[in-house]
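Most newcomers find our protein records easier to grasp once they have seen one. Read left to right, the backbone structure tokens trace the chain's path through space. Once this layout is familiar, the rest of the handout is easier to follow. The record below serves as our worked example for the rest of this section:


***
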Amino acid sequence: MSGIDIRTQTAADIGSDASVVATVRRVGRRRRTSVCLSLVGVLVVVSVLALMLGDRVIAPGDVLATLVGQGTGGDSFVVLGLRMPRLLLGLMVGTMFGLAGAVFQSLFANPLASPDLIGISQGASAAAVAAILLAGWSGLAVSLSAFAGAVVVATLILLVAGRADAAGDRFVINGIALAFLAQALIGYLLTRSDVRDAQSALVWLVGSIGTVQPADLLVAVVGGGVLVLALVSLSTRLGMLQLGDEAATGLGVRTRSTRLMLLLVAVGLAALATAAAGPVAFVAFVAAPIARRLLGGRGPALVASALVGAVVVSGADLLAQHAITGLQVPVGIVTGIVGAPVLLLLVARSNRSRGTL
């Protein structure tokens, strides 16, 4: 009789545990949905403001009419020809930086494993500055050089680390060391160049989406779209990797090859974003921590990170254009001013809760 009671109690416990798990998952899904929808709403508001505001203010109804092909010739030129390319580039750059930062930080379980801290962005910057100052290139050629520089630095980090699944701390330290080398090269090139050439290089180094070339936008949209789709196909395996190598292997994941593919995608995203807009400060670093804070979890939070990155860049660009009357500043200055306090706030809250970013 007692044996039957024990088995009955055990079955009841199992049923109770399953119910709790199902409830937790349901609450988590609801929170993710509400957070992502809220971020989409913020993006819509920022996008409408970006298309409305400028030397010529266009009413929201006229913006909508223009977007559906019913606007006047003047409104179409301003909205579709001038403001829409800048908005699209900002959204793509923010999305790519947010995803790149989320993948790096998730793979190495380290909040410092961000492309703008471990040399990826600095490598792109060094190559772009060399293209501007030494070769006299501009436009798409500078973007391609920046992409190549980011890939070269990422390859060097992997070679020094020894393998794609190197410990997060070692990967970060190697990246920071190469970032200093790239920064030293940038400083040397700037000090040896003509003042006017150095000024154009410095504008690129700050990070800007003020001048949008059709070729740059096409490369960012097409290349970014391909990489985002590749990341979507790998997202389930990224979540499994966070369970640990043994658990991931037991679930059928080839850990080394999966890490390498994820790294290649993340490097590509960071390289494309930097090539398109320059090393926009703090976006890749803070997008994923903010997303995880909003979601209340520790997972990759890829969708939320992409949305946060897009909000940060597009919102910062809106402030850069209109916060000071008669003065436009590069978007990287605004993200730096806003990003530093946000980072300090995240660290302070993390220390109080004894958690991690």
Q: What stands out?
A: Residues 56 and 78 are 8 Å apart (CA to CA). Residues 87-353 form a domain with the ABC transporter involved in vitamin B12 uptake, BtuC fold (CATH 1.10.3470.10). The chain has a mean pLDDT of 86. The two ends are 52 Å apart (CA to CA).
